[in-house]
Specification:
Radius of gyration: 15 Å
Structural class: mainly alpha
Number of strands: 2
Largest sheet: 2 strands, antiparallel
Distance between the termini: 23 Å
Helix content: over 70%
Order of helices and strands: EHHEHHHH
Strand content: under 5%
């Protein structure tokens, strides 16, 4: 694992961040907001980590998935309330406020998609 800056992954991170922000701002419900947004968020996090860390893609993907699952399972508790952030709009947006198996599936599919791209497409070129 080596600290380095990768401008390509950072560019993808920025584009995904803007996409997620647009989804959050313009869409208040539906498949794109609740499921596709979760699919994209793990790809966004993966690109963020790959922007600054040069390491095995599978390791970074697994770390990203563990982080997403951890945050999702924390939603079964009152952790935002314990941190004094229950009423904070940004904390609720970033960490969510209700556990969903559907979110876990979306995170898993997002990581599988990024690994497919990394292993099949990028490594061949």
């Amino acid at each position: 694992m080596k600290l380095t800056f990768n401008k390509i992954y950072f560019l993808f991170f920025i584009l995904l961040f803007l996409t997620e922000a647009a989804i959050a701002y313009y869409l208040k419900s539906g498949f794109i907001r609740h499921t596709f947004g979760d699919f994209l968020v793990v790809i966004l996090l993966y690109c963020f980590f790959k922007s600054f860390v040069k390491a095995n893609s599978v390791l970074i993907a697994l770390m990203t998935l563990v982080m997403a699952f951890t945050i999702e399972f924390l939603q079964l508790t009152n952790f935002l309330e314990m941190l004094g952030l229950k009423g904070n709009m940004w904390a609720n947006l970033v960490f969510g406020n209700s556990f969903s198996i559907q979110d876990l599936v979306a995170y898993s599919l997002g990581i599988m998609a990024i690994l497919f791209i990394e292993i099949r497409v990028l490594r061949k070129s």
